[in-house]
Amino acid sequence: MAERKEIEAFLDQHIFLGLTVKVEKNWRENERLLKRFGYTTDSS
To answer: Are 15 and 4 in contact (CB under 8 A)?
Structure first.
């Protein structure tokens, strides 16, 4: 909410901020996706 108000003040008009989250099935078990999202399974 605060971010929207800051942007509205900057632009001097009302805006709508929306967020869409897409979830890949079984992403927690997918090494390629984990690496892409910045997670690593390396202990080092």
So the answer is: yes
Rounded distance between C-alpha atoms, residue 30 and residue 39, angstroms: 11
pLDDT tens digit string along 1-44? 899 999 999 999 999 999 999 999 999 999 999 998 898 766 65
* CA pair distance 41, 32, nearest whole angstrom: 11
CA atoms of 28 and 5, how far apart (whole Å): 35
Contacts of residue 41, Cβ cutoff 8 Å, sequence gap at least 6? 31, 34
- Residue-range domain boundaries for the chain: 2-36
CA-CA distance, 39 to 31, in Å (whole number)? 9
